[in-house]
Every structure is written in structure tokens, then in C-alpha cells.
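Q: What residues go here?
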């Protein structure tokens, strides 16, 4: 079996290409597999991707599951390729019937469920307490002056999460970890997913309709995939159904939110604050008012970047491929089993 592995340049300070190569070397433990690392810069376009992948390869690991990248032309020119592993939780909607017609199994790699949920709460805690702002205030104030400023003093409104209702849009692995964290804070947990989750592990989560999720949430955190049914689902109409002073957290995909409607809701006070790790355009190449508002906290799509999760990304992709070869694939997103 010939495997191509796509490897980009590490984008965090504590991980190296060598670290990632060591994890991908776990492919050596699968009998009969030969692999080649394909180093890439950024996200290749379809034409570059088609040229990059060997014509006789049987599988591609670490791909980006987008409708522009994984297309029928690729399958026509790579007839041996029957397995594609996306390198992330998220993926775009494809012509799944077309992928099944070519007999290709497509999987995602759910490596960052805990760390992305943790980052969602990091954004939330920053909104609630502004710890860095108060740290700067304490460190930069001259407390030895004759008449120093107030000490036991809050520069911003302080919010307590205990007793609030946490609404989770998308109760997959990341959403479930967000629910666990929220329960630890003493929050009431409600959630909406396209399919109701079954099992005793979900007993502490009240699964509700989408409209009820909007109406009851004090904090709404987004953990759903981006597809035609979810694009801009958080729009002007959705905001109108929410409580006043709701907090919005998005560590999923920027296009889940209508940014113009969000700006309006932030300026009117309907939304108390927004914590965003994702935006519609990344990086922004034109003026975006979200970047200028005092009640937004914005980071650069980094929720997935701890070293532990990046290494797990590769090892989990290898393990998923092993299970596919053994005849029982997991994390399949295009309906082939």
C-alpha cells in the first residue's frame, strides 16, 4: 500500500517538523505500507494537490476536506486512491455520492476534542474576568506613590458562570467536552445537534430544539461542522431569538456566523461579547469592524495547536488508517463502511 502524507510547516512555537515526522513514522508499524511525506506550504489549490499526490498512491493522509480540493477529477486521475483522511475535525460538504461511486472512504481526524473545548472556555473566561487586563493594571501601577489607585478594584464587569445556561450547538466530540467543562463550572447544559445523542453519558445534557437553544442560552458556543445547512445559521433572525446580553463563542468555523448580523448585535448590546477563534476571512484582508469593537476577543484559529494535540493528530490518523486496512474503518464521513 502506497501512502502520501501531507505535512505543513508547524505553526506553534513548541513543535518542530521533526516531531511530526516522528509521529508519522508510526506508519512503519503497519505491514505492507510504504509512505512518502509531501511537504506543503499553506493550503494547496486543487491543481497543485492533484499534481502533488502520486498517481499510483492508495491513500492520502492529512488532506483538507474541501469541495474544491477533493473533486471528481482527482479520483479520475488517481484511480488507486481509495482512502482519504482529513487532518482535522472539520470538513466541508462534498458530493458524497460521487465519492462513494469511486469507492473511496473518507474520514476525519478527531484529535482536538478536549483542547478545542478548553480554548472555547479560555475565550469565555477572558470575557468574564479580563485577567490579562487586570494583571497589567497591577503590574504597571506605581503602588509606592503617595496616593495610589484603588487596589481591590475591578476595571470591568465580572461574570460568574455558575448557574448560567450553557448552550452547545453541535454535540460531537468537541461539543461533548465543552459540556463536561461547563458542568464543572456549575452551569446548566443544553444542546442542539442534528441527531439526538443516545447513551447514559449524555444524561446531564438537556437536548433541545434549535430555537429553544437560542432562547435559553446565557452562553452559546458553536461546535458544529460547516455545510450548506449551517452556513450563516447564526444570523439576524437567530440573534433576535436570543436573550439580551448573551455571550457567543465560536471555535468552529467562521462562516457559521453572519458577521454583519453579529456586528449589529454586539453594537446594540443584544450580544454582551463574542469570543472568536475563527472568522469568515482568515486572515482578514479588508477592514472588519469585529476587529475594532471593545466587546470582541479574537484569536487566530489556534485552538487546535497545543503540541500534545498536534502529535495526537498524526498518531490518530495512523491508527484510523490501520483500522480501515483491518476492515473496520472509523470516523467515516462519507457513508462508506
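A:
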Amino acid at each position: 500500500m502506497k501512502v502520501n502524507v501531507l505535512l505543513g510547516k508547524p505553526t506553534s512555537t513548541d513543535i518542530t517538523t521533526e516531531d511530526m515526522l516522528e509521529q508519522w513514522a508510526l506508519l512503519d508499524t503497519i505491514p505492507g505500507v510504504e509512505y512518502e511525506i509531501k511537504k506543503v506550504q499553506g493550503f494547496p489549490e486543487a491543481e497543485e494537490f492533484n499534481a502533488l499526490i502520486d498517481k499510483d498512491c492508495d491513500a492520502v493522509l492529512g488532506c483538507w476536506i474541501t469541495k474544491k480540493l477533493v473533486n471528481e477529477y482527482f479520483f479520475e486521475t488517481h484511480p488507486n486512491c481509495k482512502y482519504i483522511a482529513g487532518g482535522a475535525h472539520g470538513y466541508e460538504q462534498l458530493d458524497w455520492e460521487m465519492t462513494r461511486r469511486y469507492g473511496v472512504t473518507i474520514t476525519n481526524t478527531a484529535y482536538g476534542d478536549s483542547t478545542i473545548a478548553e480554548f472555547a472556555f479560555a475565550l469565555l473566561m477572558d470575557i468574564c474576568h479580563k485577567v490579562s487586563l487586570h494583571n497589567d493594571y497591577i503590574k504597571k501601577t506605581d503602588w509606592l506613590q503617595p496616593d495610589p489607585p484603588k487596589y481591590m478594584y475591578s476595571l470591568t464587569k465580572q461574570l460568574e458562570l455558575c448557574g448560567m445556561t450553557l448552550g452547545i450547538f453541535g454535540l460531537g466530540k468537541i461539543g461533548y467536552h465543552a459540556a463536561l467543562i461547563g458542568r464543572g463550572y456549575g452551569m446548566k447544559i443544553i444542546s442542539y445537534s442534528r441527531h439526538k445523542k443516545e447513551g447514559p453519558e449524555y444524561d446531564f445534557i438537556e437536548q433541545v430544539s434549535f430555537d429553544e437553544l437560542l432562547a435559553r442560552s446565557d452562553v452559546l458556543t458553536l461546535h458544529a461542522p460547516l455545510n450548506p445547512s449551517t452556513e450563516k445559521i447564526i444570523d439576524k433572525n437567530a440573534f433576535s431569538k436570543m436573550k439580551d446580553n448573551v455571550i457567543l463563542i465560536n471555535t468552529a468555523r467562521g462562516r457559521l456566523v453572519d458577521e454583519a448580523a453579529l456586528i449589529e448585535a454586539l453594537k446594540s448590546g443584544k450580544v454582551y461579547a463574542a469570543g472568536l477563534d475563527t472568522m469568515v476571512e482568515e486572515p482578514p484582508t479588508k477592514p472588519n469592524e469585529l476587529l475594532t469593537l471593545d466587546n470582541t476577543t479574537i484569536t487566530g484559529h489556534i485552538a487546535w495547536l497545543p503540541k500534545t494535540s498536534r502529535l495526537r493528530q498524526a498518531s490518530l490518523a495512523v491508527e484510523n488508517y490501520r483500522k480501515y486496512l483491518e476492515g473496520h474503518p472509523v470516523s467515516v464521513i462519507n457513508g462508506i463502511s
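A: Context that may help when evaluating the design: The radius of gyration is 22 Å. Residues 45 and 69 are 6 Å apart (CA to CA).
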